[in-house]
């Protein structure tokens, strides 16, 4: 079974966010009143 990973938070350390992006993990973070999803580099595990 394959899947994708993602992490969500109200705030991220820049190092953690960069590490996640480099390793194909989606980022969900709060931007004002909405959640922003960064999933351009998703990797199937």
Indicate how many domains the architecture comprises. Answer: 1
Q: Which ranges are low-confidence, i.e. pLDDT below 50, for 5 or more consecutive residues? A: none
- Give me the number of helical elements: 1
Query: Kindly, what is the distance between the CA atoms of the first and last residues, rounded to a whole number of angstroms?
Result: 9 Å
Number of strands: 3
Question: How helix-rich are the residues, as a percent range?
Answer: 10-25%
| Shape descriptor | globular
Structural class: alpha+beta
Largest sheet: 3 strands, mixed
Using only CA atoms, what is the Rg? 11 Å
| Order of the strands making up the biggest sheet | 1-2-3
Helix-strand string? EHEE
The averaged pLDDT comes out at: 88
> Proportion of β residues?
25-35%
Report on this model:
The chain has one domain. The protein is of the alpha+beta class and 45 residues long. The protein has a three-stranded mixed β-sheet, with helices on one face. The mean pLDDT is 88. It contains one helix and three strands, in the order E-H-E-E.
Give the arrangement of secondary structure elements.
Elements: E1 6-9, H1 14-22, E2 26-31, E3 34-38
Parallel strand pairs: 1-2
Antiparallel strand pairs: 2-3
Keywords:
about 45 residues; alpha+beta; three-stranded mixed β-sheet; 1 helix; about 20% helix; about 35% strand
Describe this structure in a few short sentences.
By secondary structure, the protein is α+β, with helices and mostly antiparallel strands. It has one helix at 14-22; strands at 6-9, 26-31, 34-38.
